[in-house]
Design a protein that fits this description.
Anaerobic Ribonucleotide-triphosphate Reductase Large Chain, alpha/beta, 13% strand, four-stranded antiparallel sheet, 630 residues
Length: 630
């Protein structure tokens, strides 16, 4: 069995096998012809070459827009190193791993295969913090090992090291869930004062924001915080130093200390008042959430100032707090049912995640399709290519895991059976404008968008039965794809409709265009039936011009989650940072006190970065945003 046989089988033969146990046989038959085609297509060395000199010079002279494709990276020597190595690996993946049909679809902009520069490893992962607490950090031959942590300071240090190492083995976000619940027993065991707890949390947060991975960027980290002990953990043994000390339900007081310390740290920012971008916190808002309880005002103040948290709706959505731990324990899953990956835009449930993401260019489908039947035929064709690319990638990363290319993943995960293959969309609004002349803000447009999402869900269920692998439908963040695909389409089809007056871009997924309304409830009303059809990576961003009143936010979030079943929501105020005068509410490219240039911060796709570091398409979107009034 080899990769080339798998590629041809997936592309050229009708797949009738629908059980995981039969998948290996299908793979063996699947790629023998592709091996022959691989030799024919790629034996020419020119196909595998790229211009090293040009790649380096374009980065150094900042002539390549991809220098700012990811606003989390920094223009620097490590950034150049990542850009050069990533370009080489992307070239290898497109020419050597994927067959020409898929490579051409990506290169032409019909779809976008994310993270090609990390194309031989998986995309994102949620890790079991309980595993780290029980096992300690290590287990890789020839590398240092640490026993299970006995103290909070040791555990937070292990968390920093663990996520930093795991980030090196994945392309995207790394997540821990129930962080406050699982840290709480260490506070009591160490008999820590609040000041001591805060000191350890500060050290952890600062360390997580130090550029320590490729590209001179910090690890991309998501924490989910329970706020109150979840039902499925209340009677579970609390673990410290490998020993049981009561049950987690006994530690609400210590949880409150952890949450207070974390929020105060994030609220204070760094020495210049600059935001800590990571970890991105996701807070679970349940029906039992005490809106007048301890730390709620602090949570709202942090939200009003920096817009830090994601809020997860357990009040009116179909989500369940215990789902973040259920997948890793499941031996069998109903493949006719689409599962929720859990954890929000960048999070993942314990021991699950995504092997890779492919985004389909809907505006082009809208442009080239003349009838509804043709629209869905073109969509299915692109979905089939996306599925094939993801099946190939799954094979590649499973092989690489078996070869120990990701040694820590092999120790703490062991397999990718519970990782999803992710298919997403971009530009439904522009697709509708090109196809029917009406946008997604219209009733006709939204109804067609709902029909498209339901169709995609049905196809993904078929893929699950066919392959035995998990699939999910995502509103992909598409930070770079939004600009790349619109730019490519304008080159190929000059009269295609895109967003952007000066620079083209596509509206994310099925979102409303950014300049359509100032009323957040109008947005929630419109988005609710769309957001609930995704099974991961979807969130409603409430963009605000500047810092709102914390008390107003509390009322707004409570009302929004009670009335609208959107799974996730953020509050996103714009703010500025002056090197001398620190935090300034609102958008000020020059400090109103000293007149010096500032850094203006907003959420680019799901996390805060300075607007000046965004790519041109996202900067154009920022200019056109109409902020909401709460």
């Amino acid at each position: 069995m080899d990769l080339d046989s798998i590629k041809d089988s997936l592309l050229l033969k009708p797949v009738t096998i629908n059980k995981r146990q039969e998948g290996e046989l299908r793979k063996e038959n699947l790629i023998k012809e592709q091996k022959k085609r691989s030799v024919e297509n790629y034996s020419n060395a020119e196909k595998m070459s790229f211009d090293v000199r040009k790649t380096i010079n374009e980065y150094i002279e900042m002539k390549d827009w991809r220098t700012n494709e990811n606003s989390n990276t920094t223009y620097s020597y490590p950034g150049l190193y990542l850009h050069l190595a990533g370009s080489a690996l992307a070239n290898y993946v497109l020419n050597e791993i994927y067959p020409s049909e898929i490579s051409q679809a990506h290169s032409s902009g019909a779809l976008h295969i994310h993270d090609l520069s990390h194309g031989i490893v998986a995309y994102c992962a949620g890790w079991s913090l309980m595993d780290l607490i029980k096992k300690g950090f290590g287990g890789v031959e020839g590398k240092i090992n640490a026993k299970p942590a006995k103290h909070l300071s040791a555990l937070t240090g292990q968390m920093v090291n663990f996520l930093g190492v795991m980030q090196m083995e994945f392309a995207g976000a790394q997540a821990f869930n129930s962080v406050d619940t699982l840290l709480a027993p260490f506070v009591r065991a160490d008999k820590l004062s609040y000041d001591e707890v805060k000191q350890f949390i500060q050290q952890m947060v600062f360390a997580m924001n130090v550029p320590s991975r490729w590209g001179s960027q910090p690890p991309f980290i998501n924490f989910t915080l329970d706020w109150t002990v979840p039902d499925d953990l209340k009677n579970e043994p609390a673990i410290v130093g490998g020993k049981e000390i009561g049950v987690y339900g006994d530690y609400q007081k210590e949880m409150n200390m952890v949450n207070k310390a974390f929020l105060e740290t994030m609220l204070e920012g760094d020495a210049n008042g600059r935001i800590f971008s990571f970890p991105i916190p996701t807070y679970n808002i349940t029906k039992e959430f005490d809106w007048e309880g301890e730390n709620v005002d602090l949570l709202m103040e942090a939200t009003a100032k920096y817009g830090l948290p994601y809020f997860q709706n357990f009040i009116s959505s179909s989500l369940n707090p215990g789902d973040v731990r259920s997948m890793c324990c499941r031996l069998q899953l109903d493949l006719r049912e689409l599962k929720n990956r859990g954890g929000g835009l960048f999070g993942s449930a314990d021991k699950t995640g995504s092997i890779g993401v492919v985004t389909i260019n809907l505006p082009r489908i809208g442009y080239i399709s003349k009838t509804k039947e043709e629209y869905f035929e073109n969509l299915k064709s692109m979905m089939d290519l996306a599925k094939t690319s993801l099946e190939i990638k799954r094979y590649v990363i499973e092989e690489n895991l078996s070869k120990n290319l990701m040694p820590y993943t092999k120790v703490y995960l062991g397999h990718f059976n519970n990782h999803f293959s992710t298919i997403g969309i971009i530009g439904m609004h522009e697709s509708l404008l090109n196809f029917m002349g009406r946008g997604i803000e219209t009733n006709e447009g939204r109804e067609f968008a709902i029909e498209v999402l339901n169709y995609m869900r049905s196809v993904l269920k078929d893929y699950q039965e066919e392959t035995g692998n998990l699939y999910n439908l995502e509103a992909t963040p598409a930070e770079g794809a939004s600009y790349r695909l619109a730019k490519k389409d304008k080159q190929l089809y000059p009269d295609i409709i895109t967003s952007g007056d000066d620079e083209p871009y596509y509206t994310n997924s099925t979102f409303l265009p950014v300049g359509i309304t100032e009323d957040p409830f109008e947005v929630l009303e419109h988005q609710a039936p769309l957001q609930t059809l995704y099974t991961s990576g979807t969130v409603v961003h409430i963009f605000l011009q500047e810092k709102p009143q914390a008390s107003t936010l509390k009322t707004f979030i409570k009302k929004a989650f009670s009335q609208y079943p959107v799974p996730y929501m953020t509050i996103t105020p714009t703010f500025s940072i002056c090197e001398t005068h620190g935090y300034i509410a609102g958008e000020h490219f020059e400090c109103p006190i000293c007149g010096k240039p500032t850094e203006v911060y907003s959420r680019v796709v799901g996390y805060y970065r300075p607007v000046k570091s965004w790519n041109k398409g996202k900067q154009q979107e920022f200019k056109e945003r109409l902020e909401y009034r709460v």
